[in-house]
Amino acid sequence: MVKRFRLHQVPAQLRSAGIASLANLYNAAVQTGLRLYNSRPEPALAEELLGLASSAHAFSLRGAHAGYSKGFEHAYARAFESPSSPEIRRMRLTRIEQDTEEAALEDSPGDLEPDWRSRLAPDEAAIVIHAGEPESAVWTATRESIDLCAIPHRSELARATSEFRAAVESSSSSAAVAGRALHQMLFGCLGPEVHRKPRWLIVASDVLFRAPLAALVSGGTADQPRYLVEQHSIRLMPGLWMLGKASNTWTGPMLAAGDAVYNRADPRAPGWSKWPNVIELPRLPASRQELLRCSRTQPVPALIRAGMESSAPDLETGLRSTKPAVLHLAAHVTPSPGTPEESLLVLSPSKDGVPGLLGTEWITSQRAAPELVVMSGCRSGSGEVRPGDGLMGLTRAWIAGGAAGVVATHWPVPDDQGVFWESFYRHRAEPGTAVDQALRMAQIEALKSGTFRAKAANWAAYFLVSSR
Protein backbone atom coordinates (compact mmCIF):
# COMPACT_ATOMS: atom_id res chain seq x y z
CA MET A 1 0.00 0.00 0.00
CA VAL A 2 1.30 3.42 -0.93
CA LYS A 3 1.32 5.84 1.98
CA ARG A 4 -0.41 9.12 1.30
CA PHE A 5 2.14 11.77 0.31
CA ARG A 6 1.22 15.31 1.40
CA LEU A 7 3.28 18.26 0.36
CA HIS A 8 2.08 20.40 3.25
CA GLN A 9 4.07 18.06 5.52
CA VAL A 10 7.29 18.77 3.63
CA PRO A 11 9.56 21.31 5.41
CA ALA A 12 9.08 24.90 4.31
CA GLN A 13 12.58 25.15 2.87
CA LEU A 14 11.77 22.32 0.45
CA ARG A 15 8.38 23.73 -0.45
CA SER A 16 9.99 27.07 -1.25
CA ALA A 17 12.54 25.52 -3.60
CA GLY A 18 10.37 26.49 -6.55
CA ILE A 19 7.84 24.96 -8.85
CA ALA A 20 10.37 22.99 -10.89
CA SER A 21 11.59 21.00 -7.87
CA LEU A 22 8.06 20.40 -6.64
CA ALA A 23 6.92 19.33 -10.09
CA ASN A 24 9.78 16.85 -10.24
CA LEU A 25 8.95 15.57 -6.75
CA TYR A 26 5.29 15.22 -7.69
CA ASN A 27 6.12 13.38 -10.89
CA ALA A 28 8.55 11.03 -9.15
CA ALA A 29 5.97 10.11 -6.51
CA VAL A 30 3.26 9.43 -9.08
CA GLN A 31 5.69 7.48 -11.28
CA THR A 32 6.63 5.25 -8.33
CA GLY A 33 2.99 4.65 -7.51
CA LEU A 34 2.15 3.78 -11.10
CA ARG A 35 4.91 1.20 -11.24
CA LEU A 36 3.55 -0.37 -8.07
CA TYR A 37 0.04 -0.37 -9.53
CA ASN A 38 1.28 -2.19 -12.63
CA SER A 39 2.24 -5.11 -10.41
CA ARG A 40 -0.84 -4.88 -8.17
CA PRO A 41 -3.84 -3.30 -9.93
CA GLU A 42 -6.26 -2.83 -7.05
CA PRO A 43 -9.13 -0.29 -7.00
CA ALA A 44 -8.11 1.00 -3.55
CA LEU A 45 -4.60 1.66 -4.81
CA ALA A 46 -5.95 3.44 -7.89
CA GLU A 47 -7.97 5.78 -5.67
CA GLU A 48 -4.98 6.35 -3.39
CA LEU A 49 -2.85 7.36 -6.37
CA LEU A 50 -5.52 9.68 -7.69
CA GLY A 51 -5.68 11.41 -4.32
CA LEU A 52 -1.89 11.68 -4.33
CA ALA A 53 -1.85 13.30 -7.76
CA SER A 54 -4.60 15.76 -6.84
CA SER A 55 -3.06 16.79 -3.52
CA ALA A 56 0.46 17.06 -4.93
CA HIS A 57 -0.68 19.23 -7.82
CA ALA A 58 -2.61 21.61 -5.57
CA PHE A 59 0.19 21.96 -3.02
CA SER A 60 2.76 22.49 -5.76
CA LEU A 61 0.89 25.73 -6.48
CA ARG A 62 1.18 26.71 -2.82
CA GLY A 63 4.84 25.78 -2.63
CA ALA A 64 5.66 27.78 -5.74
CA HIS A 65 3.90 30.79 -4.25
CA ALA A 66 5.89 30.51 -1.01
CA GLY A 67 9.25 30.44 -2.77
CA TYR A 68 8.30 33.05 -5.30
CA SER A 69 7.33 35.98 -3.12
CA LYS A 70 10.76 37.19 -2.00
CA GLY A 71 12.29 37.13 -5.48
CA PHE A 72 9.21 38.81 -6.86
CA GLU A 73 9.33 41.67 -4.40
CA HIS A 74 12.94 42.42 -5.34
CA ALA A 75 12.19 42.36 -9.07
CA TYR A 76 8.92 44.25 -8.74
CA ALA A 77 10.78 47.13 -7.11
CA ARG A 78 12.46 47.62 -10.51
CA ALA A 79 9.18 47.51 -12.42
CA PHE A 80 8.81 51.28 -12.39
CA GLU A 81 12.20 51.58 -14.04
CA SER A 82 11.24 49.24 -16.89
CA PRO A 83 7.46 48.69 -16.73
CA SER A 84 7.35 47.20 -20.23
CA SER A 85 9.99 44.57 -19.50
CA PRO A 86 8.67 41.15 -20.63
CA GLU A 87 10.35 39.51 -17.63
CA ILE A 88 8.65 41.88 -15.17
CA ARG A 89 5.30 41.42 -16.91
CA ARG A 90 5.61 37.64 -16.75
CA MET A 91 6.38 37.85 -13.05
CA ARG A 92 3.42 40.15 -12.39
CA LEU A 93 1.08 37.82 -14.26
CA THR A 94 2.44 34.78 -12.47
CA ARG A 95 2.11 36.50 -9.09
CA ILE A 96 -1.56 37.32 -9.76
CA GLU A 97 -2.22 33.71 -10.75
CA GLN A 98 -0.47 32.40 -7.67
CA ASP A 99 -2.24 34.83 -5.34
CA THR A 100 -5.55 33.65 -6.75
CA GLU A 101 -4.59 29.99 -6.53
CA GLU A 102 -3.34 30.52 -2.96
CA ALA A 103 -6.68 32.01 -1.92
CA ALA A 104 -8.58 29.23 -3.65
CA LEU A 105 -6.49 26.60 -1.89
CA GLU A 106 -6.99 28.01 1.61
CA ASP A 107 -10.07 25.89 2.23
CA SER A 108 -9.52 23.26 -0.46
CA PRO A 109 -5.86 22.20 -0.38
CA GLY A 110 -6.26 19.62 -3.11
CA ASP A 111 -7.20 16.69 -0.93
CA LEU A 112 -10.09 14.61 -2.21
CA GLU A 113 -12.81 14.15 0.39
CA PRO A 114 -13.75 10.53 1.18
CA ASP A 115 -17.13 11.03 -0.48
CA TRP A 116 -15.89 13.03 -3.48
CA ARG A 117 -17.30 10.57 -6.01
CA SER A 118 -20.80 11.17 -4.65
CA ARG A 119 -20.49 14.72 -6.00
CA LEU A 120 -20.48 13.38 -9.52
CA ALA A 121 -23.90 13.36 -11.18
CA PRO A 122 -25.37 9.91 -11.97
CA ASP A 123 -24.71 10.50 -15.68
CA GLU A 124 -21.13 11.77 -15.22
CA ALA A 125 -17.72 10.14 -15.42
CA ALA A 126 -14.53 11.86 -14.26
CA ILE A 127 -11.40 11.22 -16.34
CA VAL A 128 -7.98 12.36 -15.11
CA ILE A 129 -5.08 12.15 -17.56
CA HIS A 130 -1.52 12.24 -16.24
CA ALA A 131 1.04 12.61 -19.04
CA GLY A 132 4.48 11.73 -17.72
CA GLU A 133 7.79 10.07 -18.49
CA PRO A 134 8.20 7.15 -18.58
CA GLU A 135 4.73 6.37 -17.19
CA SER A 136 1.44 7.97 -18.20
CA ALA A 137 -1.96 6.99 -16.88
CA VAL A 138 -5.65 7.74 -17.05
CA TRP A 139 -7.95 7.47 -14.04
CA THR A 140 -11.67 7.03 -14.54
CA ALA A 141 -14.27 7.41 -11.81
CA THR A 142 -18.03 7.26 -11.53
CA ARG A 143 -20.24 7.21 -8.49
CA GLU A 144 -19.98 3.44 -8.55
CA SER A 145 -16.31 2.70 -9.23
CA ILE A 146 -12.78 3.92 -9.92
CA ASP A 147 -10.16 2.51 -12.26
CA LEU A 148 -6.67 3.23 -13.56
CA CYS A 149 -4.88 2.13 -16.72
CA ALA A 150 -1.59 2.91 -18.44
CA ILE A 151 -1.44 5.02 -21.60
CA PRO A 152 1.49 6.01 -23.87
CA HIS A 153 4.18 8.25 -22.42
CA ARG A 154 4.10 12.01 -22.62
CA SER A 155 6.27 12.51 -25.72
CA GLU A 156 4.13 10.13 -27.75
CA LEU A 157 0.95 11.83 -26.57
CA ALA A 158 2.43 15.24 -27.45
CA ARG A 159 3.28 14.09 -30.97
CA ALA A 160 -0.16 12.56 -31.53
CA THR A 161 -1.92 15.64 -30.11
CA SER A 162 0.05 18.00 -32.35
CA GLU A 163 -0.70 15.95 -35.47
CA PHE A 164 -4.39 15.65 -34.59
CA ARG A 165 -4.87 19.34 -33.84
CA ALA A 166 -3.13 20.42 -37.05
CA ALA A 167 -5.20 17.98 -39.13
CA VAL A 168 -8.53 19.11 -37.66
CA GLU A 169 -7.74 22.81 -37.85
CA SER A 170 -6.71 22.54 -41.53
CA SER A 171 -9.57 20.13 -42.44
CA SER A 172 -6.97 17.62 -43.62
CA SER A 173 -8.05 14.23 -44.93
CA SER A 174 -5.84 12.71 -42.23
CA ALA A 175 -7.95 14.17 -39.39
CA ALA A 176 -10.11 11.06 -38.94
CA VAL A 177 -7.08 8.75 -38.79
CA ALA A 178 -5.26 11.04 -36.36
CA GLY A 179 -8.41 11.40 -34.26
CA ARG A 180 -8.95 7.67 -34.08
CA ALA A 181 -5.30 7.10 -33.07
CA LEU A 182 -5.35 9.66 -30.26
CA HIS A 183 -8.75 8.43 -29.03
CA GLN A 184 -7.34 4.92 -28.78
CA MET A 185 -4.29 6.18 -26.88
CA LEU A 186 -6.33 8.12 -24.34
CA PHE A 187 -9.57 6.20 -23.98
CA GLY A 188 -9.03 2.78 -25.55
CA CYS A 189 -8.59 1.15 -22.13
CA LEU A 190 -11.72 2.67 -20.56
CA GLY A 191 -14.36 0.27 -19.33
CA PRO A 192 -17.93 0.07 -20.66
CA GLU A 193 -19.35 1.79 -17.57
CA VAL A 194 -17.44 4.99 -18.40
CA HIS A 195 -18.42 4.86 -22.07
CA ARG A 196 -22.07 4.61 -21.04
CA LYS A 197 -21.91 7.90 -19.13
CA PRO A 198 -23.04 10.71 -21.47
CA ARG A 199 -21.20 13.47 -19.61
CA TRP A 200 -17.41 13.43 -19.27
CA LEU A 201 -15.48 15.67 -16.85
CA ILE A 202 -11.84 15.67 -17.94
CA VAL A 203 -8.79 16.84 -16.02
CA ALA A 204 -6.16 16.99 -18.76
CA SER A 205 -2.58 18.02 -18.13
CA ASP A 206 0.03 19.72 -20.23
CA VAL A 207 -0.18 19.50 -24.05
CA LEU A 208 -3.52 17.70 -24.01
CA PHE A 209 -5.18 21.00 -23.19
CA ARG A 210 -4.48 21.96 -26.81
CA ALA A 211 -6.38 18.99 -28.23
CA PRO A 212 -9.86 19.56 -29.76
CA LEU A 213 -11.22 16.57 -27.84
CA ALA A 214 -14.73 16.86 -29.30
CA ALA A 215 -13.35 15.79 -32.71
CA LEU A 216 -11.66 12.61 -31.47
CA VAL A 217 -12.93 9.67 -33.50
CA SER A 218 -14.50 6.89 -31.45
CA GLY A 219 -15.85 4.73 -34.27
CA GLY A 220 -17.62 4.75 -37.62
CA THR A 221 -15.93 4.49 -40.99
CA ALA A 222 -13.27 6.48 -42.81
CA ASP A 223 -15.96 8.34 -44.77
CA GLN A 224 -18.38 8.70 -41.86
CA PRO A 225 -16.43 8.90 -38.59
CA ARG A 226 -18.27 8.90 -35.28
CA TYR A 227 -16.97 11.75 -33.16
CA LEU A 228 -16.55 11.75 -29.39
CA VAL A 229 -18.98 14.67 -29.08
CA GLU A 230 -21.73 12.49 -30.60
CA GLN A 231 -21.53 10.26 -27.52
CA HIS A 232 -20.38 12.56 -24.70
CA SER A 233 -20.43 16.16 -23.58
CA ILE A 234 -16.99 17.34 -22.47
CA ARG A 235 -16.01 19.84 -19.81
CA LEU A 236 -12.45 20.44 -18.69
CA MET A 237 -11.64 21.13 -15.05
CA PRO A 238 -8.40 22.27 -13.37
CA GLY A 239 -8.61 19.51 -10.75
CA LEU A 240 -11.04 17.20 -9.00
CA TRP A 241 -10.48 19.03 -5.73
CA MET A 242 -12.73 21.76 -7.19
CA LEU A 243 -15.64 19.36 -7.65
CA GLY A 244 -18.69 20.54 -5.72
CA LYS A 245 -17.06 23.86 -4.86
CA ALA A 246 -19.57 26.44 -3.60
CA SER A 247 -20.75 28.89 -6.24
CA ASN A 248 -21.40 32.60 -5.62
CA THR A 249 -21.77 33.65 -9.23
CA TRP A 250 -23.66 36.63 -10.55
CA THR A 251 -27.27 36.47 -11.74
CA GLY A 252 -27.80 39.67 -13.74
CA PRO A 253 -28.76 39.91 -17.43
CA MET A 254 -26.27 39.04 -20.17
CA LEU A 255 -23.57 41.57 -20.98
CA ALA A 256 -22.49 41.29 -24.63
CA ALA A 257 -19.62 43.23 -26.22
CA GLY A 258 -18.43 43.18 -29.83
CA ASP A 259 -18.15 44.89 -33.22
CA ALA A 260 -15.35 46.98 -31.79
CA VAL A 261 -13.58 49.80 -33.62
CA TYR A 262 -10.32 48.35 -34.90
CA ASN A 263 -8.91 50.64 -37.61
CA ARG A 264 -8.66 54.20 -38.91
CA ALA A 265 -10.94 53.42 -41.90
CA ASP A 266 -13.87 52.83 -39.54
CA PRO A 267 -16.10 55.95 -39.66
CA ARG A 268 -17.05 55.34 -36.02
CA ALA A 269 -13.56 56.45 -34.90
CA PRO A 270 -13.12 60.11 -35.92
CA GLY A 271 -10.24 60.59 -33.48
CA TRP A 272 -8.12 57.64 -34.67
CA SER A 273 -5.45 59.81 -36.26
CA LYS A 274 -4.58 61.13 -32.80
CA TRP A 275 -3.96 57.60 -31.46
CA PRO A 276 -0.64 56.40 -32.96
CA ASN A 277 -0.21 53.44 -30.59
CA VAL A 278 -3.52 51.68 -31.26
CA ILE A 279 -3.27 48.28 -33.01
CA GLU A 280 -5.18 48.16 -36.31
CA LEU A 281 -7.18 45.04 -37.18
CA PRO A 282 -10.02 44.31 -39.62
CA ARG A 283 -13.54 45.04 -38.41
CA LEU A 284 -15.78 42.15 -37.38
CA PRO A 285 -19.06 43.49 -38.78
CA ALA A 286 -20.99 40.24 -38.29
CA SER A 287 -20.26 40.32 -34.57
CA ARG A 288 -22.97 42.95 -34.04
CA GLN A 289 -25.53 40.53 -35.47
CA GLU A 290 -24.02 37.86 -33.23
CA LEU A 291 -24.71 39.99 -30.15
CA LEU A 292 -28.30 40.60 -31.26
CA ARG A 293 -28.90 36.90 -31.91
CA CYS A 294 -27.53 36.01 -28.49
CA SER A 295 -29.64 38.67 -26.81
CA ARG A 296 -32.83 37.27 -28.36
CA THR A 297 -32.22 33.92 -26.65
CA GLN A 298 -32.16 35.47 -23.18
CA PRO A 299 -35.15 35.80 -20.82
CA VAL A 300 -34.16 39.45 -20.34
CA PRO A 301 -32.58 41.46 -23.20
CA ALA A 302 -28.81 41.69 -22.99
CA LEU A 303 -26.89 44.87 -22.26
CA ILE A 304 -25.06 45.29 -25.58
CA ARG A 305 -21.83 47.23 -25.90
CA ALA A 306 -20.71 47.77 -29.53
CA GLY A 307 -18.64 50.25 -31.51
CA MET A 308 -16.81 52.79 -29.37
CA GLU A 309 -18.90 51.64 -26.40
CA SER A 310 -17.09 48.29 -26.40
CA SER A 311 -13.94 49.66 -24.76
CA ALA A 312 -12.31 48.38 -21.59
CA PRO A 313 -13.78 51.15 -19.39
CA ASP A 314 -17.25 50.45 -20.82
CA LEU A 315 -16.85 46.72 -20.20
CA GLU A 316 -15.68 47.31 -16.64
CA THR A 317 -18.62 49.63 -15.96
CA GLY A 318 -21.02 47.06 -17.41
CA LEU A 319 -19.59 44.30 -15.25
CA ARG A 320 -19.99 46.35 -12.09
CA SER A 321 -23.48 47.70 -12.85
CA THR A 322 -25.02 44.56 -14.37
CA LYS A 323 -23.21 41.69 -12.61
CA PRO A 324 -24.13 39.48 -15.56
CA ALA A 325 -24.80 35.77 -15.30
CA VAL A 326 -23.40 35.54 -18.84
CA LEU A 327 -20.62 37.62 -20.37
CA HIS A 328 -20.37 37.22 -24.16
CA LEU A 329 -17.36 38.69 -25.96
CA ALA A 330 -17.14 38.73 -29.77
CA ALA A 331 -13.71 40.22 -30.39
CA HIS A 332 -10.31 39.73 -31.90
CA VAL A 333 -7.65 37.97 -29.83
CA THR A 334 -4.00 38.71 -30.59
CA PRO A 335 -0.62 37.74 -29.12
CA SER A 336 0.86 40.32 -26.78
CA PRO A 337 3.59 42.35 -28.51
CA GLY A 338 5.91 42.00 -25.52
CA THR A 339 5.14 38.41 -24.54
CA PRO A 340 3.82 36.44 -27.55
CA GLU A 341 2.85 33.47 -25.38
CA GLU A 342 0.24 35.70 -23.72
CA SER A 343 -3.05 36.34 -25.54
CA LEU A 344 -4.87 39.67 -25.41
CA LEU A 345 -8.54 40.39 -26.03
CA VAL A 346 -8.84 43.42 -28.32
CA LEU A 347 -11.70 45.87 -27.73
CA SER A 348 -12.21 49.44 -28.93
CA PRO A 349 -9.74 52.07 -27.75
CA SER A 350 -11.01 54.32 -25.00
CA LYS A 351 -12.26 57.78 -25.90
CA ASP A 352 -8.84 59.23 -25.04
CA GLY A 353 -7.03 56.70 -27.24
CA VAL A 354 -5.88 54.08 -24.73
CA PRO A 355 -5.64 50.74 -26.62
CA GLY A 356 -8.32 48.23 -25.69
CA LEU A 357 -5.93 45.35 -25.00
CA LEU A 358 -7.11 43.12 -22.16
CA GLY A 359 -4.79 40.43 -20.83
CA THR A 360 -4.86 38.00 -17.95
CA GLU A 361 -3.83 40.70 -15.47
CA TRP A 362 -6.82 42.91 -16.31
CA ILE A 363 -9.25 39.98 -16.37
CA THR A 364 -8.17 38.57 -13.02
CA SER A 365 -8.22 42.00 -11.37
CA GLN A 366 -11.91 42.44 -12.22
CA ARG A 367 -12.91 39.61 -9.86
CA ALA A 368 -15.83 39.05 -12.22
CA ALA A 369 -18.08 36.13 -11.30
CA PRO A 370 -20.43 35.35 -14.20
CA GLU A 371 -21.86 31.86 -14.32
CA LEU A 372 -20.51 31.72 -17.86
CA VAL A 373 -17.99 33.67 -19.96
CA VAL A 374 -18.05 33.12 -23.72
CA MET A 375 -15.13 34.26 -25.87
CA SER A 376 -15.96 33.76 -29.52
CA GLY A 377 -12.78 35.45 -30.76
CA CYS A 378 -9.78 33.94 -32.51
CA ARG A 379 -7.51 31.74 -30.37
CA SER A 380 -9.25 32.82 -27.18
CA GLY A 381 -8.20 29.67 -25.34
CA SER A 382 -4.56 29.98 -26.29
CA GLY A 383 -1.75 30.57 -23.87
CA GLU A 384 1.53 29.16 -22.71
CA VAL A 385 1.39 25.55 -21.54
CA ARG A 386 3.69 24.90 -18.60
CA PRO A 387 4.63 21.53 -17.10
CA GLY A 388 2.06 20.40 -14.55
CA ASP A 389 -0.15 23.40 -15.21
CA GLY A 390 -2.70 22.74 -17.93
CA LEU A 391 -4.97 25.80 -17.83
CA MET A 392 -3.36 28.98 -18.99
CA GLY A 393 -4.16 32.10 -20.98
CA LEU A 394 -7.36 34.08 -20.98
CA THR A 395 -9.46 31.02 -20.14
CA ARG A 396 -7.67 30.44 -16.86
CA ALA A 397 -7.75 34.15 -16.01
CA TRP A 398 -11.56 34.26 -16.05
CA ILE A 399 -11.72 31.10 -13.91
CA ALA A 400 -9.15 32.50 -11.49
CA GLY A 401 -11.12 35.73 -11.28
CA GLY A 402 -14.35 34.02 -10.22
CA ALA A 403 -16.21 32.75 -13.30
CA ALA A 404 -17.82 29.32 -12.97
CA GLY A 405 -17.25 28.36 -16.60
CA VAL A 406 -15.62 29.61 -19.79
CA VAL A 407 -16.36 28.62 -23.37
CA ALA A 408 -13.48 29.57 -25.67
CA THR A 409 -11.90 28.60 -28.99
CA HIS A 410 -8.76 26.69 -29.89
CA TRP A 411 -8.24 28.52 -33.20
CA PRO A 412 -9.82 31.22 -35.40
CA VAL A 413 -13.52 30.71 -36.09
CA PRO A 414 -15.68 32.19 -38.88
CA ASP A 415 -17.36 35.53 -38.26
CA ASP A 416 -20.78 34.14 -39.28
CA GLN A 417 -23.30 36.33 -37.45
CA GLY A 418 -23.56 34.11 -34.40
CA VAL A 419 -25.50 31.12 -35.79
CA PHE A 420 -23.55 28.71 -33.57
CA TRP A 421 -24.05 30.83 -30.45
CA GLU A 422 -27.75 31.25 -31.07
CA SER A 423 -28.02 27.46 -31.14
CA PHE A 424 -25.91 27.16 -27.99
CA TYR A 425 -27.97 29.64 -25.95
CA ARG A 426 -31.23 28.21 -27.22
CA HIS A 427 -30.25 24.75 -25.97
CA ARG A 428 -28.91 26.19 -22.70
CA ALA A 429 -32.33 27.76 -22.05
CA GLU A 430 -33.98 24.34 -22.14
CA PRO A 431 -34.94 23.18 -18.62
CA GLY A 432 -32.34 20.96 -16.96
CA THR A 433 -29.67 21.56 -19.61
CA ALA A 434 -26.17 22.26 -18.30
CA VAL A 435 -23.56 24.29 -20.20
CA ASP A 436 -21.61 21.20 -21.31
CA GLN A 437 -24.78 19.63 -22.67
CA ALA A 438 -25.80 22.80 -24.51
CA LEU A 439 -22.34 23.07 -26.09
CA ARG A 440 -22.54 19.44 -27.23
CA MET A 441 -26.00 19.99 -28.75
CA ALA A 442 -24.81 23.06 -30.65
CA GLN A 443 -21.75 21.20 -31.93
CA ILE A 444 -23.86 18.26 -33.12
CA GLU A 445 -26.31 20.67 -34.76
CA ALA A 446 -23.41 22.21 -36.69
CA LEU A 447 -22.05 18.75 -37.55
CA LYS A 448 -25.41 17.70 -39.01
CA SER A 449 -26.12 21.05 -40.71
CA GLY A 450 -24.99 20.08 -44.21
CA THR A 451 -23.27 23.48 -44.51
CA PHE A 452 -19.69 24.68 -44.14
CA ARG A 453 -20.29 24.50 -40.38
CA ALA A 454 -20.34 20.70 -40.62
CA LYS A 455 -16.54 20.58 -40.89
CA ALA A 456 -14.88 19.70 -37.61
CA ALA A 457 -12.62 22.73 -38.02
CA ASN A 458 -15.68 24.91 -37.38
CA TRP A 459 -17.44 23.20 -34.45
CA ALA A 460 -14.53 21.40 -32.72
CA ALA A 461 -12.76 24.70 -32.03
CA TYR A 462 -15.10 25.34 -29.09
CA PHE A 463 -14.41 23.94 -25.63
CA LEU A 464 -15.63 24.43 -22.07
CA VAL A 465 -13.54 24.87 -18.93
CA SER A 466 -15.39 24.66 -15.62
CA SER A 467 -14.39 25.52 -12.06
CA ARG A 468 -17.31 23.68 -10.45
Structural commentary:
The protein has 468 residues and is an alpha/beta fold. It has 3 domains: 7-105; 116-241, Nucleotidyltransferase, domain 5 (2-Layer Sandwich); 255-466, Rossmann fold. It has helices at residues 12-15, 19-39, 43-76, 86-105, 154-169, 175-187, 192-196, 286-296, 312-322, 360-365, 393-401, 419-428, 435-447, 456-459, and strands at 124-130, 136-141, 146-151, 199-204, 217-220, 225-227, 233-236, 255-260, 303-307, 326-330, 332-335, 343-347, 356-358, 372-375, 405-409, 462-466. Helix 8 packs parallel to helix 12 (419-428) and helix 12 (419-428) crosses helix 13. It is globular.
| N- to C-terminal distance | 31 Å
* Range of strand content: 15-25%
Q: Using the coordinates above, name the CATH class of the largest domain.
A: Alpha Beta
Strand neighbour order, sheet with most strands:
9-8-10-14-15-16
Would you spell out the secondary-structure blueprint of this structure?
Elements lengths: L11 H4 L3 H21 L3 H34 L9 H20 L18 E7 L5 E6 L4 E6 L2 H16 L5 H13 L4 H5 L2 E6 L12 E4 L4 E3 L5 E4 L18 E6 L25 H11 L6 E5 L4 H11 L3 E5 L1 E4 L7 E5 L8 E3 L1 H6 L6 E4 L17 H9 L3 E5 L9 H10 L6 H13 L8 H4 L2 E5 L2
